[in-house]
Write a structure and sequence with these properties.
Layout (H helix, E strand, L loop, with lengths): L1 E8 L1 H8 L6 H7 E6 L2 H14 L5 E9 L13 H8 L7 H13 L6 H6 L5 H24 L3
Antiparallel strand pairs: 1-2, 1-3
């Protein structure tokens, strides 16, 4: 789900909007913005921030909607589990397991890996190891997601 909004910035442009006057090209490029937010919290924080940093009469939200069912292209219809893991796996950026998955994936994709890594995984069934490791990461990410959405 994503949140879309159109905002007019500028006291004169807000007045023009309410008077149904047309914006010129320069005003459209500077004062009329379309913004997409991934979460409701992100959208709310943005609104709070602009309300605190500018006067209330200096901007106006002119259109806002939630995109519940996005246009799904054929190759985008698959679940992107790595995006989910990246978002919800605890300590994703410092995880040795995530690093190992990256190494194993590059090996399966026939990309170059360093000699030290090549030696480390030399006798492994790379596909099987990657599958098991991905399952563990996805389960941990899902558990973290579940605990975030439905805290005890």
């Amino acid at each position: 789900m994503s949140y879309h909004t159109k905002i007019v910035f500028g006291k004169e442009q807000v007045r023009k909007f309410y008077n149904k006057e047309l914006f010129n090209d320069l005003e459209k490029s500077i004062n009329l913005k379309k913004i997409t937010f991934d979460t409701r919290a992100e959208r709310s924080a943005f609104y709070k921030g602009i309300a605190e940093s500018t006067g209330r009469l200096e901007f106006e939200v002119i259109n806002e909607f939630e995109d519940i069912v996005e246009d799904v292209k054929e190759d985008e219809s698959k679940f992107d589990y790595w995006a989910f893991i990246e978002q919800y796996y605890p300590k994703y950026s410092s995880s040795d397991s995530v690093l190992l998955c990256d190494i194993l994936t590059r090996k399966l994709d026939r990309e170059e890996i360093c000699e030290k890594d090549e030696e480390y995984i030399r006798d492994w069934d790379v596909r099987k190891e990657l599958f098991e490791l991905d399952k563990e990461l996805l389960c941990a990410a899902f558990e973290n997601f579940f605990n975030t959405v439905y805290p005890e």
